[in-house]
Amino acid sequence: MSSLRSHDDTWDIKTSVGSTAVMVAAARAVETERPDALIRDPYAKLLVGNSGANVLWEKMLDPAIVARVEAIDADSAAHLHHMRSYQAVRTHFFDAYFNDAVAAGIRQVVILASGLDSRAYRLDWPAGTTVYEIDQPQVLEFKSTTLAENGVTPSADRREVAIDLRQDWPAALREAGFDPGAPTAWLAEGLLMYLPADAQDRLFAQISELSAPGSRVSAETAPAHAEERRQQMRERFKKVADEIGLEETIDVGELMYRDDDRAHVADWLNDHGWRAQSQAAVDEMRRLNRWIEGVPFADDKGAFSDFVTAERV
Ligand SMILES: C[S@@+](CC[C@H](N)C(=O)[O-])C[C@H]1O[C@@H](n2cnc3c(N)ncnc32)[C@H](O)[C@@H]1O
């Protein structure tokens, strides 16, 4: 297990796993400002700016800094471009997943480990949709307070379920009003890599128990970077960061669980009453013209996630 993690660790938006929510929101903020943006997250910049988190990845997404990185090390710059494109493609994929789910009549949504995901505010939910967001208390509190203070209101009936997903979250979800008899659309995006393999299995077993016929689930799988390559990339980043005077506060890779025996999500779901499909993120990036040529590790298939979607049968 990573030395930075323990079975009952907690965090706020500035620390540990909480700060990874800032990192991915920063990528959405940068994407939103592109003229050819794949997605629009008008609240990402506001949330990142108010977070107070000192995340190296977030700073490195700043286009001015990316340009400096390009001048120092082409591989590190390609990696940053990849990271930004990947986040845009991932957000685009799961936005479409929710649009399809509500078009099919689903009105109950659960976003697991919602972090700074602003879908409950920015998507065009049909009347009568309830969006439950589960994350650690301080993370949810930061998001809802910051958005409320800036006059941003949810576009659905948004309900917070402030609990760790390693605790009895199904009970907390029911207490918040969740109806296990109604079909649900679930999402686990940017989560599985922060859970040990057994907690991942337990999570999907709990989701399955709460899923009425017609429910859907979607997930981004945990990547499995080859350790040696990861170490190489970390050293290069550190060198670049030192050269441009950025301080690394946390190694995100060290927050993840790299369990070799982790179940493949689509296989697990297919074996437990779901009909699942898996889409390689790399293929989705190519389809949307967002694959970055020259990205290090391109030949290391395990380094890239899949996007899994499934329907309860
Ligand atoms: C990389 S962020 C992803 C946030 C969001 N899903 C997105 O894509 O923007 C990881 C999030 O997972 C949450 N998280 C990780 N492990 C968790 C756990 N055991 N219980 C609750 N939340 C967890 C963190 O608090 C953080 O908000």
TrEMBL record:
Coiled coil (UniProt feature): none
InterPro entries: Ppm1/Ppm2/Tcmp (IPR007213), SAM-dependent_MTases_sf (IPR029063), SAM_mthyl_Trfase_ML2640-like (IPR011610)
One Pfam match: LCM
UniProt keyword terms in alphabetical order: Methyltransferase, S-adenosyl-L-methionine, Transferase
A GO biological-process term: methylation
Gene Ontology MF: a single term: methyltransferase activity
Enzyme nomenclature, EC number: 2.1.1.-
Alphabetized NCBIfam families for the sequence: mthyl_TIGR00027 (TIGR00027)
Free-text function comment from the UniProt entry: Exhibits S-adenosyl-L-methionine-dependent methyltransferase activity.
Family under the similarity heading: Belongs to the UPF0677 family.
PANTHER family in the record: S-ADENOSYL-L-METHIONINE-DEPENDENT METHYLTRANSFERASE YKTD-RELATED (PTHR43619), S-ADENOSYL-L-METHIONINE-DEPENDENT METHYLTRANSFERASES SUPERFAMILY PROTEIN (PTHR43619:SF2)
Listed name of the protein: S-adenosyl-L-methionine-dependent methyltransferase
Source organism of the structure: Mycobacterium helveticum
